[in-house]
Amino acid sequence: MMFVKLTRGSACKLACGFKFRSHNSSSKFRICQALSGDVTDSDIRIQGWVRSVRAQKEHLFLHVNDGSSLQPLQVVATSELDARGVTFGSAVDITGSLVKSPSKKQSVELHAKHIQVVGECSPVEFPFKIKERHSLEYLRQFPHLRCRTNIFSALLRLRSEASSAVHAFFKENNFVQIHTPVITSNDCEGAGELFQVEPAGREPTPDAGNQHFFSVPTFLTVSGQLHLEVMSGAFPAVYTFGPTFRAEKSQSRRHLAEFYMAEAEISFARSLQDLMAVMEGLFRATTEHILTCCAEDVALFHKYVAPGRREQVDHMLSKKFHVISYTEGIDILNRSSQRFSFPTEWGCDLQTEHEKYLVKHCGDVPLFVTDYPYDLKPFYARDNQDQPRRTVRNIPHALAAVDLLVPGVGELCGGSLREERLELLRTRLARAELEDTYGWYLELRKFGSVPHGGFGMGFERYLQCVLGVDNIKDVIPFARFSHSCPL
Questions:
Q1: Higher pLDDT, 303 or 21
Q2: 3-class secondary structure for the chain?
Q3: Report field, pTM of the whole predicted structure over 0.85
């Protein structure tokens, strides 16, 4: 199965200098545009925030940034201009002449004719200090302010461009985007880690009958997969990209209560290779795109957060992704001299320590692990056997499921072929006492059902992998996790 690579043209403009013109002022420019060399107007207007202030006897030098690029624009003002209130962190509206800079540090600079302080900032009270590099852990204390820093504004530009790249990949490969519901009655993962949804302030009364707003218990979605399966009965390829939720009480660097998933469902898929081709294509296309269109932002992370990560990313892209079965993975772990905290016998779930070891063992390139044990995956995963589950012990019983493991993170994607055989699916649902709950799901297999499969990719984990960020809370604008109280 072949997949289209992303085109560079229009999608790169957002990160590399998309032009913005105000209806009220034809001379207003984004700073990325002023720095690009595309500006032909000599008199321009910029708006942004002061990143540094340096005063000399006759001139005031400012670095101003508006979030459109990593590099600020240098503004030069004479002592004759009223620059009262201009401090580190203040918001300014400046008009002036854009000229070639005599300094080698920047190609152009703005000679200010008028400076207006739109929003003052006390540099003493401001938690970020000029010319000081703050750690990601320190910035995490200020979720309402950390977007003002170079590192986090770079992260947000990268998220925006990577998100666009995900959508572009699916669109160029003829997937139809589906807006799956955030509120649902389905527990797709079956783990029970759900946030229940009910109206605030409603007091239950004994005689009120059904107490649920939607007549049945409803939850914040853990996955859009089951809704995508509905749509795969009418389209060959569908996807969704949005927030998902887990009510897992954990404050570890791997867990969030709210995160984003890119999920796809492919009709007429008969093998795991069909799914793996899409997973690999999505990873490669998105990564190549942001390395091209956000080179400075990526380089900032690779220089100060994860030195040497760029070489690892290039290595990942230069190699073919490896494929092993779950059984082969267990054999590798059991032959290892490394001591693991969790058991490694056949039938156990792979933990992060196991996943990272397997990736390293296979050359530090993305690794597909296939054919997981029957009891490790949800009811919808396709049975590799043609008969209902045998109860004979010591006979490996596997499902057509696959995980994509990546360096530094572990599991990035999880997917499977879906059980399209009605009787086998009915048997498994009955065994789990879910036949009544998922009667509608059984009906999908009665009316024009086809072999199909799908997967989900954790967007924050993807960013961690490419940027080398250790804590998942540092790659999302507002980190929601157990016991946290952000905005």
A1: 303
A2: CCCCCCCCHHHHHHHHCCCCCCCCCCCECCHHHHHHCCCCCCEEEEEEEEEEEEECCCEEEEEEECCCCCCCEEEEEECCCCCCCCCCCCEEEEEEEEEECCCCCCCEEEEEEEEEEEECCCCCCCCCCCCCCCCHHHHCCCCCCHHHCHHHHHHHHHHHHHHHHHHHHHHHCCCEECCCCCEECCCCCCCCCCCECCCCCCCCCCCCCCCCCCCCCCEECCCCHHHHHHHCCCCCEEEEEEEEECCCCCCCCCCCCEEEEEEEEEECCCCHHHHHHHHHHHHHHHHHHHHHHCHHHHHHHHHHCCCCHHHHHHHHHHCCCEEEEHHHHHHHHHHCCCCCCCCCCCCCCCCHHHHHHHHHHCCCCCEEEECCEHHHCCCCECECCCCCCCCCCCCCCEECEEEEEECCCEEEEEEEEECCCHHHHHHHHHHCCCCCCCHHHHHHCCCCCCCEEEEEEEHHHHHHHHHCCCCHHHCCCCCCCCCCCCC
A3: yes
